[in-house]
Amino acid sequence: MARKHSKHAFHDDEPQDEDAPAPAVPCWLCGRPTGKTIVWHHPVPKSRGGRDVVPMHAICQQTLIVNFTNSELQRHGMDVEALLANPTVRKFVDWVANKDPDFTATIAKKRR
Ligand SMILES: [Zn+2]
């Protein structure tokens, strides 16, 4: 957190320090800042022994869940580029790029 060290009298009443939001964490999948809700996603599913978590939007996590099986997620692991190579995921990321960080929608589950 970079703060100005100068302690001059002027500008002292600016409330920006207390109101400044915590620095936004970028989403692992789409790279946008996360909104009010941060989902801590296991790139390798917990049921497959995954322990690492990454910050994500709920909608981005949902996209992974509906487009990949646990086995695929386990295989790709932390390799987000491999996930983005999926055309459906790529399309989603391009589409969601201009949405509000707190934007959510129901991602239709593909019938397999
Ligand atoms: Zn995201």
TrEMBL record:
It comes from the Bacteria. This is HNH endonuclease. Residues 1-23 are annotated as: Disordered.
